[in-house]
Design a protein that fits this description.
By secondary structure, the protein is α/β, with parallel strands linked by helices. The protein folds into three domains: 3-77, no CATH class; 91-135; 165-340, Ribonuclease H-like superfamily/Ribonuclease H (Nucleotidyltransferase, domain 5). It is 45% helix and 13% strand. It contains 13 helices and five strands. The protein has helices at 13-24, 30-43, 48-55, 59-72, 91-103, 114-121, 125-135, 153-165, 235-247, 268-276, 295-307, 315-331, 342-359, and strands at residues 171-187, 206-219, 225-230, 254-259, 280-284. It has a five-stranded mixed sheet with strand order 3-2-1-4-5, sandwiched between helices. Helix 10 links the parallel strand 4 (254-259) and strand 5 (280-284). Helix 2 (30-43) packs across helix 3 (48-55) and helix 8 (153-165) runs antiparallel to helix 13 (342-359).
């Protein structure tokens, strides 16, 4: 049926309120929310083509749900039943699971378990789990975040991201940080190697053989790493690492070093060294923003591929393993690709702040 032959969509006040609720609530299934938006937009006027343009969707999608609503009203926006075993869980129970998961917590606990929620709603724990999966809900999982209080947050983000996306000419950019107190851990029993059907097994306890600090400078253009092991990570140790970077870098290039706000990076010894080496410039990441320093991504690779399952019978074993791993990495070095612009990062931070503000009211 063409656009011009479709009758207009006229809503009752009750239908309008219901559709607005479906379109607005976080607990509404994404498909149902879109269908509600389509009908509301159709009620504002315009043919299927105009509504599709307003919502950024296909014209045939608008036509399908306009027709379904005109034939069956609100009931027409639900998914059509599929062949197979009849449903035993009502829509109201599905919504209750989602709403309680998002908006409530059980008494005496921080989040719902599938058994607690199943008992409350009157369905099986496996049904609760299926609903959670369908809606992408994981109440047992949490992630941490920290909004930087740095007064120069915006300037620092633009500065660092600018070095990633548009590095200066005739210059090299290093992302620098320290991984302190890497432990030389020896398991109390030999590691049992993997065999078909059984993963590698290690004893849970271990013997400590000391620690070492690792300074690392990741060349953001090539992915190669300059590393230096140290007993400590004081200002003089950082200064000595800058010396190492200086020795291994083409003397004709300017050197931009991205690092965090650790006091050792701003100490008089470092300041004096920088005055004597004018081709070096330090760029500081915002407070609590280690995620913006690319070398942290390299440290994650080091942890996963070298340290996490390593067995080191002495501190020398650990040092050798670290040096060997850096050599292997550099033989096959690849840069990490940075894709987010400063504006995209700042927009996301603003959205976090808005959500926190809304929750605080």
């Amino acid at each position: 049926m063409g656009d011009t032959r479709l009758p207009p969509v006229v809503l009752s006040e009750a239908e309008r309120l219901t559709l607005q609720s479906w379109a607005r609530r976080r607990s509404t299934a994404q498909g149902l929310a879109q269908r509600a938006q389509i009908v509301l937009s159709c009620a504002q006027g315009g043919n299927n083509t105009a509504v599709a343009a307003r919502l950024g969707i296909e014209r045939k999608t608008v036509g399908r749900w306009r027709s379904r609503f005109l034939r069956h009203r609100l009931e027409g926006l639900s998914d059509e039943p599929r062949p197979g075993v009849p449903r035993t869980i009502a829509d109201a129970q599905v919504e209750e699971v989602v709403v309680r998961t998002l908006e409530e917590t059980p008494q005496g606990a921080t989040h719902w378990s599938k058994r607690e929620l199943a008992k409350r709603v009157g369905i099986s724990p496996s049904s609760v789990l299926r609903i959670w999966r369908a809606f992408g809900l994981e109440p047992w999982r949490t992630e941490t975040f920290k909004i930087s209080p740095d007064p120069l947050l915006i300037d620092k983000i633009r500065d660092v991201v600018g070095l990633y996306l548009a590095p200066p000419a005739n210059a090299v950019v290093f992302a620098v940080d320290e991984k302190p107190q890497i432990q030389a851990l020896e398991r109390t029993a030999p590691v049992l190697p993997m065999v078909p059907g059984t993963p590698e097994r290690r004893s849970f306890d271990y013997v400590r053989h000391g620690t070492v600090d690792l300074f690392a400078a990741l060349n953001t253009a090539t992915g190669k790493v300059i590393g230096k092991l140290s007993a400590q990570h004081r200002a003089v140790d950082f200064r000595d690492f800058l010396d190492e970077i200086d020795r291994q870098t083409d003397p004709g290039l300017a050197v931009h070093v991205i690092c965090d706000n650790l006091s050792a990076h701003k100490a008089p010894a470092v300041h004096k060294w920088l005055l004597a080496h004018p081709r070096f410039e330090l760029h500081f990441t915002p407070t609590y923003s280690s995620w913006i320093n690319q070398v942290e991504r390299w440290f994650a690779e080091l942890e996963r591929r070298c340290l996490e399952r390593g067995v080191f019978c002495s501190l020398d074993d650990l040092k050798t393993a670290l040096e060997d791993w850096i050599t292997v990495w550099n033989d096959n070095a690849r840069p990490f690709k940075w894709t987010k612009t400063a504006d995209q990062i700042l927009d996301r931070i603003c959205r976090y702040c808005d959500r926190i503000s809304e929750l605080g009211h």
